[in-house]
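Researcher: Following up on the earlier apo prediction. This time include the ligand. It's zinc ion, with the SMILES given after the sequence.
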Amino acid sequence: MTLAYRLSPLSKGSPHRRLLVQLDCPVQESLISLITRASAANAFDRQSQFLDLTGVETRRPEFVAFTRTDAVAPIAELLFGSKKIVQERLHPRVDHRGLEGVVDWFGTPLPRRFIEAERRRVSPSSLRKSAYCRSGWMIRPLTFCPYSFERLVDRCPYCSRDLGWRRTRGITLCEGCGKSLRRAPTSKIPFELRADAGAAARVIDCRPEVRVSAVNALPPPFNYWEAGDVFVAICELGMVESRLALPYRSPALRAFSNGDFAGFDVEELVAGYRIVRNWPTSFEALVRRAVAMHEHETQSLRSMLGALGKFLVPSASPTAITQLVREEMPAVAQSLKLPIKSARSAFMEGGRENGLITIAEIASQFQVDIKRLNQVGGSLHSLVTSSQCPRGVRLFDAAKVQAAFETRANAISTRKVCSRLGVLPFMLPALEEADILVEVGNHDARVLSAPDQIYQLEPIERLTARLFAPTVAAQSMPP
Ligand SMILES: [Zn+2]
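Model: Understood. Below is the ligand-bound prediction.
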């Protein structure tokens, strides 16, 4: 810290405004920390009074980095006379993929809701090492200091008041009771999570070169994404992974999307980081686990995926991770042989995968009425996508379609059972009880045969053989 010299009195527009106590600015320090330290060092009671000198009038100094992006020059003059130091610590809105509420986080786009402005969050041991607030402490999904691995403290342990940015008793002190936060009780995150938690935090570090090396260590497509997009993906996937059992419409998931990180901790962060690092095999495993949890509930793709289905909701914000999940889903669904009726939005436009077949091809290959197929197509389990290409052509899993038609060819309908066995329809329940009438298991074959019901042919044939075989006695009787 460089102590320059102080002159008084200081008044608004004073020609002496540069003759304040000047401070070094560590590269990781946030703007509000710098303003707070400078303000305290110059014996101002409040940051807003200090900022008043610049003509930047505000009652919410904690939001200056977001709202007063026009005031670089006066703030720079007040603090250092270097515009660059202020400029790179501002978070103006940026246009990124047309998304709402994205700001510039030290050169990478990040949703504003990921950044905590109001609460002062500190790591006591980092404050002991060097008394300033690190920008990384503002990242809301990081509940710990990426440098000390201590859990961040945002409430005074002595007076229980929230820590904020309105008064300037000193950057290491509680502004309510004035006690030092350097020895505030806290704990470190579990040792086994630190390597991955630290790696996840480096993805959103305020130093671009740290971000670049963190992102380069990840597999494609993440290694050519914006670091901010990668960090959003880590958080979103971590949340989904830990809440996989929830339905995709769950209020907890919606709250998270709206910036409520209450249930998000280092375990979620690490889970998300591990999915990203092990992409794409981790994604297939995630889908498999989701389906295992929800398969019994429904046959709709979104619901079958539990929390993961939130990415397939048409109104979902088109973030990079949402689009990636939508792109990857058809191939994963194919490889897992999921019985899927897809949501229209579930898939991106793309080329046809091998092993897919259209309604028209089914009609000609299996010689069925295309009108009839169009009627039932939506309820077939072999339907993979309804909008794989721009015209909205429906595509089916060719192997499953084949199996359905083979099953149907080897089954027997109610009507034929009656005529073959010479029984009347009211007798059928008795045959069912005797396990002679067994409905076929293939869902698609049943749909294709509806409204006729179809049954397995084999038990019927066995019975027919026994009923109508010439008896031994008849055969052995002499002519
Ligand atoms: Zn206090």
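Model: The CA atoms of residues 301 and 343 lie 7 Å apart.
Researcher: Noted. I'll compare it with the apo version next.
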